[in-house]
Amino acid sequence: YQESLRYFEQLLQEGNECEAAYIHNRLGIARRNENEVSKALDHFNEALRFYSETSLSDRKLLAGIHHNIG
User: Is the whole model's pTM more than 0.90, yes or no?
Assistant: First the structure.
């Protein structure tokens, strides 16, 4: 778990904005799986923010983010 979080955090620093939505969504899932609900919601909301600020047209990602929020 900790190793995957470090990996995703590193990707956030190295990646671009288009990748940030995906990475924040995955971080949210990881946090939710560890019952860190508040941190998970923060990541899901960041994923939505990055999604809306870029020209992403991946509706599956958008649907997945909303599904993860609940």
Answer: no
